[in-house]
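User:
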Amino acid sequence: MKKILAITLSVIMIFSCSAIPAFAADTGEFDMKNSLNRFLGTVVETLIGAVDFCLGENKSFVREDEFVYDNFYEGTAEFIEEAKEGAKWSLGYSSESLVPENFEDYDLYLGGFMCEKNMFTNDVREVLDDMKVRVIALNDGSGRGTSVFATVDSIGVSNGDIRHIRGLLDTYAKENGLNSINIFATHVHSGIDTQGMWTEIIKKWPRNILTSALRLSKYQLQGTDPEYMEFFYGKIKGAIEKAVSSMEEGEMTFARKDIGERYFNNKNRPSASAMDTELKRFTFTPDNKEVTPTIILNMAAHPDVAGLAVGDEVNGHGISGDYVYYIGETLNKAGYNFMFFNGAICGIYIGEIKAEAERRVDKPANYGREIGRMVLSLTKTEEEIKSDPFLSTPDFKVEDEYIVWYEGWTPTTETKVEPILNIRLSKVDIKVQNPLIRAASKIKLVNYLVKVKGFRDYYLTTEIGYIEMGKDIKIAMVPGELCTDLAYGGTSLKAENSISGKDFEGKTLVDIFGEDVIVFGLANDTIGYIVPDNDYVMLLNHDHYAETLSVGKHTASTLMSAFESLAK
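Assistant: Predicted structure:
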């Protein structure tokens, strides 16, 4: 009983601490305020740690000598610098809905935010557009196998679930020469929760906390609906098989263009300055003209708008693919398949399109449709865009403040991508220093597998990856929401802007791979936010909310060191 009371009091204190205000960094008061913030962060972390200490481990916690990390693909064993003579790209594509026709029969919730007006439970009641899995299977004709890439319209897919899907494909992968199976999340905040954190909180959280404290973990409830997850696994497996079986030879081209900061918003981490404001487009054109070409897009912004409540309106019950769905809709109308990879998105959100919006989902719809037109127009002149009604005429009502996107537009160049696909993946152990993540693992809502070293020394094993396409395109696959400063450099890495008053001692992805490196985020895992070690503090407030969902203080330096080793 004393233990239960201690847990209850600790939880109350934690939520009280969430009211700690953020401080502006005036130069004269910077050190004092940061010292106070560091102290308050230590208090918060200690209180959460008290809760964590009272919770018992469950079967997801495995001793190091018994730990097995199965269904891992290393990628191409050999890296090549020249395309094989006569080689051509081969690409297969598929797309499937992840929404069951009888979705009302499942116990489903939206993943990505919690609304008190909904009693912190956003149960699914309608389908606004769709939640998809999109897959490409890619082969460079070198005889080194096929690489598979799948993206899921979801807040995230944990590594345990990804490796389970790989396990379902084990025989198929061997028979069809797959050298890697990579699964990403688009990070939509209005898809079905496939992680388990945004479940029926009032029912499951107290029960799982109590059973964990009493060492009765066998009575814990899973965060996700087990029946839906079987449906989910099967749909992704089938989509991967379909993509592999539909591969066609063709040509790959690449174009990238900076569209400016108007379409992006760095609103949640004021200490960080970097934003990736480029659209990066791969276009696969099959030799068989009866086969649909495919556009692969990489950009960096949270798809978080469609699921939120508006004013006094109690919503947040509708499934939507957010802006990603509407980019796809636009490209599909233009005659293309659509594949999407989100980028380094910690704190980066979408900009505002000045258009009428009767429903919340209209905002990402307007944004996505406009971005889709930009994607189609990267190599076009302003005159060419104006002469094409599909590109120049928005399919939504605009407000007086609407700025025509193509005014002053200049085309970018498109280059041919040689058929070279090098890919390498590596396992990484990250120490779980965040007591909130340790506690979340113990109440077993999310499919984590935790490695236990020594006494209460916990690690998450995740994956990083590196891709080369052609002779000069480099891509880093990151298993979470990376602070953009860690990719391209920025103010939060400097002592004068950080909470610690120290420089970040690690390297950035640009330092490791070069200035043109591309980031594919939420790759093969969803470990949460990845913020610089020197700017990490558990304040639970607006400016440092990301730390709440971060594995720990040294996550960034651990991953950057692993990327250095991978590069070597």
